[in-house]
Design a protein that fits this description.
Blueprint (H helix, E strand, L loop, with lengths): L1 E5 L6 H13 L4 E4 L16 H11 L4 E7 L6 H14 L4 E5 L6 H4 L11 H20 L4 E4 L4 E5 L13 E4 L3 H10 L2 E4 L11 H21 L8 E5 L21 H14 L3 E5 L16 H16 L1
Helix pairs in contact: 1-2, 2-3, 3-5, 5-6, 6-7, 8-9
Length: about 325
């Protein structure tokens, strides 16, 4: 079980760089950031861009992997994203993982709309996601030039020379829960990402969440079999904070993963038994941060999980 973290891009770099340096010093396998235009109640405070943030993080770290959790087609185009990833992979000396998903509702889905336009439906997002991932994969694998014309995206002799440091391209961690997304993960992913079943966060239990995660893993296995691929080739990544165990109301009586190091290790061990190979926790946010404290450990526990907790999981 690998232990990684996600660092929200909410601080000016003079302060924020310390979070990335600290994550490497603490021994995290990877540090990710969210690729959004803004997110939830953090919209009313500082929120910086993912690619520039990761570029800066690459300059102050040496061995820890870096990446997005997750990038989506909501406001990105495969051609420009491929160019940025090629550059970022070079700057980081081959340490980038692209977490990628279909996107959802919220600011990413509405910020670029003209007056009178409506956000894409779930089906439309899935349609675009399939084409987006397929074209991005080709652009990164064929740096000498790629032309493509699809329903949603086009590229004319798009070049990304000299290509990625990682061959044949930066690895994709595909976020998916439904059949179409899982099929994309099976075809194009080096890893698969989930946050669990969002319907269970408000009124579910840990046992129900484990059953839902098990069904998702089974679906991934079927998708890999249909694609002629061994599901063991994919890393299975759980981004924490969105399952019932982290709901402060449901867990008011105790038993939350961030009650103690032992509580977290017990939670993570159960995920490992399900088949997950990497678990991601959020780095601390300010105590008075807007609306996300329940899913985030405090500074002291964060450091203890990264050291003592990681050692127990490795053992």
């Amino acid at each position: 079980m690998r232990l990684s973290t996600v660092i929200l891009p909410i601080h000016r770099w003079a302060e924020g760089r310390r979070a990335w340096e600290s994550a490497e010093e603490l021994g995290f396998h990877a540090a990710y950031t969210y690729d959004h235009l803004s997110w939830r109640s953090f919209r009313d405070g500082p929120w910086f861009g993912a690619i520039p943030t990761l570029t800066a993080a690459a300059a102050v770290t040496r061995s820890m992997r870096l990446g997005t959790l997750v990038t989506s087609p909501n406001f990105r185009h495969p051609v420009t994203l491929a160019k940025e990833l090629t550059s970022l992979d070079d700057i980081s000396a081959g340490r980038i993982t692209l977490g990628i998903g279909a996107g959802g509702n919220g600011f990413d889905a509405t910020t670029l709309l003209r007056s009178g336009e409506v956000p894409w439906s779930p089906r439309q997002r899935a349609d675009r996601f399939g084409e987006f991932v397929t074209l991005l994969d080709a652009l990164l694998r064929e740096p000498a030039g790629k032309s493509y014309e699809g329903e949603f995206y086009a590229a004319t002799e798009a070049r990304n020379l000299p290509g990625c440091v990682q061959r044949p391209r930066v690895p994709f961690a595909v976020a998916a829960t439904g059949p179409r997304g899982l099929a994309l993960a099976a075809r194009h992913g080096q890893a698969w990402v989930t946050t669990g079943d969002p319907k269970l966060y408000e009124a579910g239990s840990g046992a129900q969440s484990a059953e839902a995660l098990g069904r998702q893993l089974d679906g991934l296995g079927r998708a890999c079999a249909e694609a002629g691929r061994d599901v063991a080739e994919l890393e299975k990544v759980l981004l924490t904070g969105f399952t019932p165990e982290f709901n402060p109301v449901l867990a008011a009586g105790g038993g939350r993963p961030f009650d103690s190091v032992d509580a977290f290790v017990d939670f993570a061990g159960r995920q490992a038994e399900l088949g997950f190979t990497e678990i991601v926790i959020h780095a601390p946010v300010p105590v008075d941060g807007p609306g996300f404290d329940a899913a985030v450990p405090d500074e002291k526990l964060f450091e203890e999980i990264a050291t003592r907790g990681a050692a127990q999981l490795a053992g």
